[in-house]
Amino acid sequence: MSTEEKIKERGPWYFWRNVIVVALFLAAFVYALTRINLDLTLLAKNFPSTIKLWSAFAKPDWSVLGEGVTLLIKTLYMAFMATALALPFAIVLSFLGAKNLMQSPVAKGIYTFVRGFASIIRSIQPIIWAIIFVVWVRTGPFPGVLALWIHSVADMTKLFSERVESIDVGPMEAIESTGAGKVLILIYGVVPQIINPYLSFTLYRLDINVRMATIIGIVGGGGIGMRLYSYIRKWNFPKAVVMTMLIIIMVWGIDYLSSRLRERIETGGGEKTKGFTI
Amino acid sequence: MAQLEIEHLKKVYPPNVVALKDISFEVEKGEFLVVIGLSGSGKSTLLRCINRLIEPTEGSIKFEGEEVTTASSKELKLIREDIAMVFQRFNLIERSLVLTNVLTGQLAELSLWRSLLGRFPRELKERAHAKLETVGIPEQAFKRADELSGGQQQRVGIARALMQDPKLLLADEPVSSLDPATSGTIMDYLAEINDQGKTVITSLHFLDLVRKYGTRAIGLKDGKIVYDGHPKDIDDEKFKEVFGEEAEKVHIT
């Protein structure tokens, strides 16, 4: 049977299946509309109540600039600490969580545990972790760092492990054949293949942590986000606006720096375009 | 005593794929032994059992009188220092310098801290440069390995093998990824190494290369030896026995 005939053969079924899928999707959408009140008139009716907020953008209260910058730097420290402290844990766990390196029955058990642990931790958002740690150790930067740290460990472990799983075993085999031991095989056969991706993922994660560090402040995780939220609650918009602007500048700056650096790492100093992108 | 003695070697890949069944042969020092056979006939497995990159299931392999199959990991490392290997896909560390790749041939003899820090003694570096000169690419030492062409990469592979100063060189389809002209150059280097008294065991596909370079050929089919003799004695009938009836079509000479 030719491909064409095969397509003809299953044509009607394919057609009706697609119709059913689209119909189900539309039904779900309409049902959701009836359950959630999307009252667009509210947007227009209540617009005047936001005027105070918009006007604050025109008249920011710069008296809090110094305080804001200090908090901004503190927030950067939080993100940096969380990433730096997560890195060694993630490096070790990534080898234990790489299927291709964990072959014996015991090793397979460790692999399953590490990857399972990582995906459970990862599936809980940093902001939820922040709530847990705020309850645990009270508000401030400490629970914020803990929240970012635990999520970073899990996230980096997963990304790193997947990278280790996709390495070329050829160089490892070659180095093993010279009579070198396991440590040397790792250093010369594995590390050169993963060092740049690891660096790149770490920068990427730092980028995420800077953004997250501002958000988790809202639930008491310290840093500039916490102050921003307290100004908003007091309806002190001119001060909140200054904090917001600072956050935007920082997030944009780190995002730009991180992507430029990653670009350089991934292309091996700008010579060759090889490897991967996130 | 032959340099390499293989007796009743058997390899079964789990769950039950039999790659080698009851292989026995001896190799004398200085031979240029070519293993021929179709893909999947067990050539790579056989070569990798000799240095235990692949763990044999049954049988005995003796290299210079020492049993390889039961060697402890420490003993095995010492045996491996005398057996170098060249690979079909070169197996270089692509992101590292050519020179570093050549130097990895010597890792086992370095102290651990030197290896960890990548601090190779000067005499070793000079040797590595010399080996690159032997294979005709001294000017490529400070390039990244993945910047080189296939033929050049295989020369780096040979230089790395030479760093070990091996007694036996295993070459697993060393020219299968290369064009015919480059293949000849690479085979010439293997022949040169062989002329210096080192034993070479290699797997090849093309009969003309087998005839030109081999002092002996072993034909593998479905994990069994179906031919063992001089390459020149492989006539069309023998050839068909090793490669099957279809072989005539790919018989390039």
Q: How would you portray this structure in words?
A:
The complex is a heterodimer of chains A (278) and B (253). Chain A is 78% helix and 0% strand. Chain A has helices at residues 3-35, 41-45, 51-58, 65-96, 105-123, 126-137, 141-165, 170-177, 182-216, 223-233, 237-266. In chain A, helix 4 packs antiparallel against helix 9 (182-216), helix 4 packs across helix 10 and helix 8 runs antiparallel to helix 9 (182-216). The radius of gyration of chain A is 25 Å and the shape is extended. Residues 269-278 of chain A have low confidence and may be disordered. Chain B has 253 residues and is of the alpha/beta class. Chain B contains nine helices and ten strands. In chain B, the strands form two sheets. Chain B has a six-stranded mixed β-sheet, with helices on both faces. A four-stranded antiparallel β-sheet of chain B has the order 2-1-4-5, with helices on one face. The model of chain B has no long low-confidence stretch (mean pLDDT 91). Chain A binds chain B through residues 168, 170-171, 173-181, 183-184, 187-189, 192-193, 196, 268, 271-272, 274, and chain B through 51, 53, 73, 76-81, 83-85, 87, 89-96, 104-108, 112, 115-116, 144, 146-147, 157, 160, 164, 170.
Considering the chains and any ligands shown, give keywords for the structure.
heterodimer; A: 278 residues; mainly alpha; 2 domains; 78% helix; B: 253 residues; alpha/beta; Rossmann fold; 6-stranded mixed beta sheet; 4-stranded antiparallel beta sheet; 9 helices; globular
